[in-house]
Amino acid sequence: WPEMLARVKCPALVFQADLDIGGMLRGHDVEFLREGVKEMLLVPVKGCGHVMHWSHATSIAQHTAIFLETL
Predict the structure, then answer these.
(1) In the chain, what is the greatest distance between 2 CA atoms, to the nearest angstrom?
(2) Which residues of 38-57 are buried (b: 16+ CB within 10 A; e: fewer)?
(3) Among 12, 15, 28, 41, which residue has the least CB neighbours within 10 Å?
(4) CA 1/CA 19 separation, integer angstroms
(5) What is the pTM of this model?
(6) Cβ atoms of 48 and 21 closer than 8 Å
(7) Quick one: CA dihedral 51, 52, 55, 61, positive or negative?
(8) Using 50, 70 and 90 to split pLDDT, how confident is the model at 1?
(9) Are 24 and 17 in contact (CB under 8 A)?
(10) In the prediction, which pLDDT does 4 show?
(11) Which residues contact 13 (CB under 8 A, 6 or more apart)?
């Protein structure tokens, strides 16, 4: 699916949860995304597992709002 990533032409916001407590996006996954998506902002979320939108809702909303202001 690298061909699909290469078709992404807009900036992308990617949150990376903590691998030790349920995060699923590993370093090599991030690099794979960076190779395909030219404008990608990575936000590591420490102390957060897979359900970050629920457990860290305020932080996620703040980062999302800041990202959207750059568009």
Answers:
(1) 34
(2) eebeeeebeebbeebeebbe
(3) 28
(4) 23
(5) 0.88
(6) yes
(7) negative
(8) confident
(9) yes
(10) 92
(11) 40, 41, 43, 63, 64, 67
